[in-house]
Amino acid sequence: MTRLILIFHLIVTSTAYVSASEIPTDSWPVSWSEPAKTASELNLTVFRQAPSLKARVESGELPPLAKRLPNDPVVLEPFDRIGQYGGTARVFHSDSLWSINSTEPFMTIDAAAGQILPNVVKRWEYSDDSKVLTMYLRRGVKWSDGSDLTADDFVFLHQHMMLNKEITPVPYPPWRDMKSIKLDDYSFRFEFEKPSPLFINTLGQLSDFFIIPSRFMRQFHADFTDREKLIERAREAGYISWMAYFNSILRWQRNDPPLAPTISAYQLTHKTPTTEYYVRNPYYWKVDTEGNQLPYIDAVRADIIESAEVMAAKAATGQVDFAGFPTRTQDFPLYKLGEKSAGITTLQWSRMTGSDIVIMPNFTIEDDRLRKLYWDSRFRKALSLAINRDEMNNIIYFGRGVPRQVTVNPSSVYFEPEFARAYADYHPERARELLTDMGVVDLDGDGLRNYPDGDELVLTVEFLDSEGPKAISMELVIAYWREVGLDMRLKLVDPALQQSRATGNLMQMTVWHADRTSDILFPIEPFWFVPMHLGWEEAHWNLWVTWFRSDGEEGEQPPDEIIQLREWWDEMILTPNPARRIELGKNILRSNAENLWSIGTVGLGPQPIVVSKRLKNVPTQGYWGWDNRFAMTYHPATWYLEQ
Amino acid sequence: MSEAAAIPAELAEASSARLTWLRFKRHRLALWAAGFLLVSYIVVGLCEFFAPYDPNWRNPRAIFAPPQEIHFFDHEGNFHLRPFVYGYELNINPETWVREYTEDPSRRYPLKFFSVGQEYEFWNLFNANLHLVTVEDGQYMHLFGTDALGRDIFSRVIYGGRVSMSLGLIGVVLTLFLGILFGGLAGYLGGWVDSLVQRAIEVIQSIPTLPLWMAMSAALPPHWSPIGIYFGLTVILSFIMWTGLAREVRGRFLAMRKEDFVVAARLLGASQMRIIFKHMLPSFTSHIITIATLAIPGMILAETALSFLGIGLRPPVVSWGVLLQQAQNYQVIVLTPWLLIPGLFVILVVIAFNLVGDGMRDAADPYGGRH
């Protein structure tokens, strides 16, 4: 599989649409896009540790380094040079969650989100029918409490969480229909009902959440401990159920211990309402090219701040060492000014989004007139043609993004230039014609169009303004739509409202950023193109998704075009034949280009990454997005603070 | 020279209105403030004419452009009778990504007065295109600079003023009506009516205003038209602000009910209405006017505060609060301080109203008070 993706990468030639945003692969050490080497492969035999750990070993608090590292640790090549130990890195809490701590899934992916590389799972094989995936673990990796990482930790999620009726009341695919079998301490396998050749994509991108410190967590799981006592403990700690208690320990959602151990570089020790405190994991299983145990940095302190303005101000004035998650494109000049006075460097990375804004009309809204309007492809085309993407690119992205329709990234094997060009030009006249054609005209002479029956037509777009320049983009979009006579209102909502109104099928139209447009995620999660997902990212076609999920028992039967779309995708994730998969993927994307199920604006925009002068080894270029898990592929464990 | 002798004959016979005016004139600051307010209301009343652009018109060539300077002398030092602005040369600094605008001497945009410019719909009545000051088609003039989308701040301040300043006036009229009605009823009738009104006032006043505003404006349906929201907000503000005035009016009525001249009027057989409107009300108009004048800036500030918090008026309506809401970020202070100009006008108008109120208080009682 890995090799196949590589080959297809070579086959696809770049186009004009690519150049603006493609990052040459030699921007990073070559070893980052290859399976990680181990110490023995590089003849490393001497290992060193941080001075702070040495002191703890001498006092007998910790076992010696040799007992903590695996026999053959993984070697990471730093971006620039070998680092220095020590220091406390300051970040915002979103970056402690998504950037500065190392992300350790089963397998991992490369920076361009194109191939799958080994991580704790060092080798894997599919059966010929793609129904059995056998995985082999690295030996000697330890949790941050010193216990061994074994195959138990990899089947625990499935066996005792996904299939546990209390933790997961309604099991869902693929977990519901699969089996997980431990073969020995260092190998296990997943058996699927249907061929699942793409399950490793999920494992490469998301599975850090799937590795559970099973030995530690058993003491909080009702199947392994005295239920009554556990419930008692959960109550005392302020939780309504043992499951909530279990989850908060596992996912670090509490202020104080117990907190689950980790195999990542940093362990959360405690939280206050304003700050999170992390310390280095003394058992971290990766070393640098000279045998120094990683991470270099001793501790991380993360400020918990909600206000985007406050975060922008703090980042621009050098009060954090790294900011990537909350930084906004429009604040680029602010951060650049900070370079002169605040001792920071502002790097320009590329946002890994097929479109920074994806506009989704709700096809299954409980409003028949609106539904009819949305379902008419002329309406959606008019919405798209009325948007002046070049102007948006200049105003919001300083001319450095790529105006395009929502589709996969240009480097993807599923990409065709025409997908990105579809209805992406600015043609307000044509948009007006299409609307007039539909009978959506101004009947009462107020300059704004009405429903064909004469009623006032006012559409409301509700969305959550985070991760990207959504509010300013939508303000422009609304202005463009008014220019063709459509009265639209914007309503900003908070995360809780976004969650409840989007999943509750209550939003007329919502907005998200079109990530999941890489070769890893597009095939398994084509959110914007196929009805297959319910979540806060979309309020697009909820009743159809429910219909597919319940095999036609609940929800609403979608039109034939949509069923066809779904059939393509169903086959796409089953077929072991890569050529057929690409053909099907292109069918889906072509359908969007022709029908505009979702509407895009500008993609692959610049992402400001603010780095303090003392933080070293951060790559100067990179892709930023969910598809490659933000900073995961740039190995934050190798970043260091110059003393 | 004794004081009585100093009063000229014309003053001795002057009507009360004339006396009021003469008295008001002596308050220099109030006079200036009143002049300022008068001009402001004329400008915002005729804002389509005074503003060079539609408040939502975008100039894509001038995103975050700083205010243009008005020149009489060009770069070579030649004097021009007709003032002009220079067009901007935009250069996005490749290093800092800051949009840097420099005056381009080759593009001189002379200002045209009473001239044809952008088309507008005057008071939703008829179409026109006459502007006080504008520039040729294809040229542009942004005296207060532009915002993130290239909209003219000068025009937006003027249009925003129409909404904010009229909301203050209309709101105060409603407040006065409610305050006099309930205060008068309570004071004149007394008894259980008085108790009821008093308790209602206490309840309303005991709730912190900001959360109460927030709750009430959250109750405005989001699909209402901008005009509907505008009136909804006015009603909300006056519903909360009438209580102070009602107290005042009630107190006055209570005190005055027993005054000799009221008793006299009653004994002479005057009707209740006549007593209230002819005898009692005029004796505390000065109070009411003062309170009303001082309440207007309160209204304006309340609207600004609510819109600033994002729960009052919303775009595409332009009000000073909406403008300030869009200026509430760190980048504005560092890079685009001209977005704060609307705040300056809020301050000016509020101070002016307070000065005028002060002057009115003295003037409305021309026979008494300090000299």
Properties at a glance:
heterodimer, A: 643 residues, alpha+beta, D-Maltodextrin-Binding Protein, domain 2, Dipeptide-binding Protein, domain 3, B: 371 residues, MetI-like fold, three-stranded antiparallel sheet, two-stranded antiparallel sheet, 15 helices, elongated
Kindly describe this structure.
The complex is a heterodimer of chains A (643) and B (371). By secondary structure, chain A is an alpha+beta fold. In chain A, the strands form nine sheets. Chain A has a four-stranded mixed beta sheet with strand order 2-12-10-9. Chain A has a four-stranded antiparallel beta sheet with strand order 5-6-8-7, with helices on one face. Chain A has a four-stranded mixed beta sheet with strand order 13-22-14-24. In chain A, strand 3 and strand 4 (116-118) form a beta hairpin. The longest helix of chain A is centred in the last third of the chain and has 18 residues, at 578-595. By secondary structure, chain B is an alpha+beta fold. Chain B has two domains: 59-149, no CATH class; 156-364, MetI-like (MetI-like fold), CATH 1.10.3720. Chain B is 57% helix and 13% strand. Chain B contains 15 helices and five strands. Chain B has a three-stranded antiparallel beta sheet, with no helix packed on it. Chain B has a two-stranded antiparallel ribbon with strand order 4-5. In chain B, helix 6 (153-189) runs parallel beside helix 9 (226-257) and helix 10 (260-267) runs antiparallel to helix 11. The longest helix of chain B has 37 residues, at 153-189. The radius of gyration of chain B is 26 Å and the shape is elongated.
